[in-house]
Amino acid sequence: MARRITILLLAVLLIAALTTLPFFLKAFHIRVGLSIFLSAGFAVCWWLLAGFTAYYSFGHTAFVGIGAFAAALALRAVPEAAPALQLAWSLGAGLVVAGGIAAIIAWPILRLRGHYFTIAMLAVALVLGEAVAAFPVFGGSTGLALPNLAPMGVRVEAFFYWIALALLAIVMAVAWVISRSRLGYGLAAIREDEDAAQMLGVPTTRFKVVAFVLSGGLIGLIGAVYALNLGYITSDSVFRGSLSLEMIVNSLVGGMGSILGPVIGAAVMTGVTKLVLADLLEYHLAITGVLIVAVVLVAPDGLVGLWRRRRAQSAGR
Amino acid sequence: MTTTDLLSVQGLAAGYGGALAVRGLDFAVAPGTIAVLVGANGAGKTTTVQVIAGAIRPSGGTIRFDGETVTGLDCPAMVDRGITLVPEGRLIFARMTVEENLLMGALNRRAAANLARNLDRVFALFPRLAQRRGQLGGSMSGGEQQMLAIARGLMAEPRLMILDEPSLGLAPKVVAETFGLIRQLNAEGITILLVEQNVRQSLQLADRAFVIEKGRVVLSGAGPTLLDDPFVKTAFLGL
Question: What are the transmembrane regions (chain A) (predicted)?
């Protein structure tokens, strides 16, 4: 009990510290923080499905794209509304449309298991990206512009920094609540052995659909913020294979066994690429690749797994 | 077939992608008894119990449980009604601890409410599992894993427990222990449906036994009586 209070206190302090940080940082560093929160948010949502159920999606950028375009199109419908309302309206559109489309594709796609699911999600992302690029409603290949919704007097990067931080806190809270619920235990049973889970009376289909819709919907929510921050989106910029890849890599680097894994992985990978490798553009991808290989070799359970193992070893001594 | 049967199966047909493994199968289990399905490999025993547990949809026939038609319901619905299958090969969660495995057995709503009580009851019944509650399921011996699979099934508070080949791959001494345990569970009021290739021992246990061949019941009767049947003797006991 005391330990739980300590953790809660630490979390509140950390959030407070992160909230005040933009007042002391340069615009560039605020943007780095913003990137970390966005990719951590995406990774946590991806992990919400993959970490609990071992259904590894290679196409979760589909939901980033859906959320982004839903937000952009929703804003066209209310050009005159107050910015705060526009913000809520576009984020809501991202969440609901991405969650809705996730619900529609969930039933057929979750009948597939293992690699088949993974590849099917890859195809979903590709098809949606092509479809969006093909239809004029979505701006075709020229894309859509989004208005600047930051209030007067607030720096744009700081504004989105705070929103992304809040959303990251929300998706982490959702994942934490699930991990302690009947749903979370059922999903863990599905991950370990789906046939056994079914025999034990776990409503496997319903639980998988719920996890998939939550994962997709919340990515759509963050995808809306991603689009608003970019200010201009095309099919290529939001239906981007590398976004799917980042969610996977960040979760693996941080560790799949804990909710902190995706967050730590996103912080490390985004931090390294934006800060350390910013001046080495040509070597950027090569070094990222070496880093991933190193993590897989040294810490197959991710950084969180490595830390846990170290702690278990020192406790055993 | 009387109305007092806990489980009755009539004209059951089921299979995989057009090939019927079970066709026109009839049998019934009276409450509080031990029923046994015996038959050779591929006779349709596992398919039959998978249908009753809700894992496979039947293509024909009716299943009644406790007076209610339950044909074609899914696993969660069957578990909610009190039918629990301890599957062939045990399907233990190897990377979970003994205690976590047991919790997974209590995920249906009815059993979740009585979780603490059921856990105590199961640990009283299986002291060895209580000692090893923190051990990983996959690190236990075959016999212990079978105990765990049965214990996990008990966590769902079954009225009918179906055991598919519980003696598979176990040492003779452990097989005897397992059959003893099944008798004990039955004495506590749980109706048992047992699928076995170990014909001699399971028939000794059976209040009623059904011999299945090519997806049909070809012979039935009290277990010990069937042991003296000339067909059973030549087909299964090698006498």
Answer: 6-25, 32-49, 55-75, 87-110, 116-138, 159-178, 209-228, 248-271, 283-307
pLDDT tens figures, B152-183: 999 999 999 999 999 988 999 999 999 999 99
Burial of residue A192 (CB within 10 Å: 0-12, 13-18, 19+) is buried
Dihedral, CA of residue B16, residue B22, residue B27 and residue B29, to nearest 10: -30
The percentage of chain A sitting over the pLDDT mark of 70, rounded to a whole number, equals 99
Q: In this predicted model, what pLDDT tens digit does every residue of A154-176 receive, in sequence order?
A: 899 999 999 999 999 999 999 99
Q: What is the pLDDT of residues B47-97, one digit of tens each?
A: 999 999 999 999 999 999 999 999 999 999 999 999 999 999 889 999 999
Query: Kind and range of the H or E element at A278?
Result: none
Any chain B CB within 8 A of the CB of A189? yes
pLDDT tens for each residue of A50-105: 999 999 999 999 999 999 999 999 999 998 889 999 999 999 999 999 999 999 99
A111 touches B at CB < 8 Å: no
Give the residue from chain B lying closest to A187, CA to CA.
B104
Dmax (CA) for chain A in angstroms is 66
CB atoms A196 and B91 under 8 Å? yes
CB B25 within 8 A of CB B223: no
Place of tokens 């038959």: B39
Instruction: Provide, as residue numbers in chain A, all residues whose Cβ is less than 8 Å from the Cβ of B91.
Output: 193, 195-196, 199
- Which chain B residues are closer than 8 Å to A192 by Cβ? 93-96
The Cα B233–Cα B239 span in angstroms is 5
Q: Hey, are the CB atoms on A200 and B104 less than 8 Å from each other?
A: yes
Task: Give the minimum alpha-carbon distance from B75 to chain A in angstroms, rounded to a whole number.
Answer: 5
CB pairs under 8 A between A and B: 57
Q: Find, among B145, B186, B185, the residue nearest to B167 by Cα.
A: B145
**Mean pLDDT, to the nearest integer, of A250-260?**
92
Nearest chain B residue to A189 by CA distance is B104
Least CB–CB distance from A200: residue in B79, B95, B96:
B79
CB distance from A193 to chain B under 8 Å? Answer: yes
Please give the angle made by the CA atoms of B228, B229 and B230, to the nearest 5 degrees: 110
Residue A84 burial by Cβ neighbours in a 10 Å radius (0-12, 13-18, 19+): exposed
* B33 φ/ψ angles, rounded to the nearest 5 degrees: -110, 175
Between CA B217 and CA B22 the distance in angstroms is 10
What is the H or E stretch that residue B221 is in?
A: strand B216-221
Cβ neighbours around B7 below 10 Å, total? 22
Chain B residues lying within 8 Å of A198, measured CB to CB: 55, 75
Please report the DSSP string for A195-227 in residue order: HHHHHTT--HHHHHHHHHHHHHHHHHHHHHHHH
Q: Which domains does chain B have, with CATH numbers?
A: 1-82+158-238 (3.40.50.300), 89-156 (no CATH)
Structure tokens at A299: 């810490």
Q: Does A196 touch chain B (CB under 8 A)?
A: yes
Q: What is the average pLDDT across B195-224?
A: 90
